[in-house]
Amino acid sequence: MKKILETVFVCNNCGNEFAKWSGQCPTCKSWNALQEFPISNNQFPIKGKKRSLGKIEVKKLSEIKEENNTNQNVFSTQISEFDRVLGKGIVRGSVVLFAGEPGIGKSTLLTQLVGKNGGLYVAGEESAEQINLRVRRLGLSPERFDVLETNSVEEIGQVLERTNNVYKIVVVDSIQTMLVGSTVTGTGTLGSFGSVNQIRESTFRLVELAKKTGVAIFIVGHVTKEGDIAGPKLLEHMVDTVLYFEGEKKGDLRILRVSKNRFGPTDEVGVFQMSDAGLSGVRNLNLSGSGESKVGSAITIVMEGTRSMMVEIQALVTESFASMPTRVFSGIDNNRGRLLVAVAQKVLGMPLWKYDVYVSVTGGIRVDDTGCDLAIMGAMYSSFKEKPIKMGGAQGIAPVLIGEVSLLGEVKKVRGWEKREKEAKAMGRVVPIIYSIGELKNLI
Ligand SMILES: Nc1ncnc2c1ncn2[C@@H]1O[C@H](COP(=O)(O)OP(=O)(O)OP(=O)(O)O)[C@@H](O)[C@H]1O
Ligand SMILES: [Mg+2]
User: Fold this and answer.
1) Which of 40, 108, 354, 407 could form a disulfide with 2 if both were Cys (CB 3.0 to 4.6 A apart)?
2) How far apart are alpha carbons 396 and 419 in whole angstroms?
């Protein structure tokens, strides 16, 4: 018998831990979700605990060789959007949690990652045949693509130790199907598949394995309806990097975001487009047609991290017959949209109190960047006037509107202006310099 030192109550819904049991989780308010778990020395080995006293050693940074920290430890994913999100690339021995809703394309992107670099794909959900079909469908090379069908974390450990540095990348799909303990019954000493404690312990073992063997491990994690990673919050603390893969399932656009990164910035995004051939990096979003100016449409360039991206804003301004006119904003912040409607009413003299206003960002992405204010304003004004925005370098090509709109209708330069302008010019577009939204009248 292991000596049980302590027990802890873990919420199966949100993963928070409590010292005492209660019928309702104090954090997420779900009922009957708290489960008791033993914490023993064996289950949670802490670095140093097992060493004898004489061996404790303090490391001098000045004596640690620098090569351990140089770029040799970072290698490219061979997928440029992926590299950007990770910082420079994959860090050896690191653990990346790759989270996303069901069916969003997690397995597809990680299959592409292994296909391009070689590696081991641990299939907890699918069979090797299914993965083989996917690899062929995506046109990837099956050479250097190994599959381990298992739900056992111990087996992953054995394979990695046996193969000793053959793999640079290991994908575990998914953490919810991994188990420490007996996989025959589907329950280990720590509870069944997907339970908070299993997820936590499996992740803990995988982190240890990555550090020990130097392979980079990508762990797939499903997210709950609320958008959290199913499993304990602790999971996010244990891994080096947390990525979220998201997008509208109806649309084909996918955004890869980083919410934690021990090796790089967290404000980068990668944009992908889903097709039969898999996910490919996207430079500019859904610009329908030939680039000619259309009624109710304006082009802008948004910045996400250091990435600039051309997007189209569409607006529909129609006479309202309701006592309260409708305001629908999709892809932009509701309050920001309302504010811009008010400024348009005041400064451009549009009688929007008797008009319904709909604004959307094409491609189903969300922009959180005041640099697109001017384009939102331009799209609304164009729809109201029923005329396209017409100033362009080449005939009829829509100009790019960039700028933040103040309450007084002034237009201000925004962060990354030069980069945005350069991107627009590279796409053969003109960026008019505008100081006040009143000048939109000259463009229509
Ligand atoms: N045989 C196929 N042909 C074309 N598209 C496919 C095919 N199989 C899958 N897809 C597309 O790939 C999408 C994502 O699949 P993928 O398995 O990568 O998602 P996932 O995030 O791993 O899902 P899950 O949470 O179920 O594991 C599917 O929704 C579908 O649009
Ligand atoms: Mg999958």
Assistant:
1) 40
2) 24
The CATH superfamily assigned to 75-281 is P-loop containing nucleotide triphosphate hydrolases (3.40.50.300)
Fold of 297-443: Ribosomal Protein S5; domain 2 (3.30.230)
Cα 348 to Cα 283, 341, 437, 440: the distances in Å are: 33, 10, 7, 9
Tens of pLDDT, residues 125-169: 999 999 999 999 999 999 999 999 999 999 999 999 898 878 999
- Residue 274 Cα to ligand 1 middle (Å): 10
For the chain, the domains span 1-45, 75-281, 297-443
Q: Ligand 2 centroid to 111 CA: how many Å?
A: 10
Q: pLDDT per residue over 399-422, tens digit each? A: 999 999 999 999 999 998 988 988
What pTM, to 2 d.p., does this model score? 0.73
Q: pLDDT for 422-435, tens place per residue?
A: 888 877 788 999 99
Question: Ligand 1 in contact with 176 (CB < 6 A)?
Answer: no
Neighbours of ion ligand 2 (CB under 5 A): 107
User: Residue 47: is its pLDDT beyond 80?
Assistant: no
Q: What is the DSSP string of 291-333?
A: SB--TTEEEEEEEETTEEEEEEEEEEEEE--SSS--EEEESS-
Could you tell me the CA-to-CA distances from 89 to 110, 169, 220 in Å, in that order? 14, 12, 18
- Among protein residues, the one whose CA lies closest to atom 14 of ligand 1: 105
Nearest CA to ligand 1 atom 31: 103
Report CA(363)–ligand 2 centroid distance (Å).
23
Q: Compute φ and ψ for 71, nearest 5 degrees.
A: -65, -15
First to last CA, the chain: 81
Q: Does the beta carbon of 102 lie inside 6 Å of ligand 1?
A: yes
CA of 104 to the centre of ligand 1 (A): 7
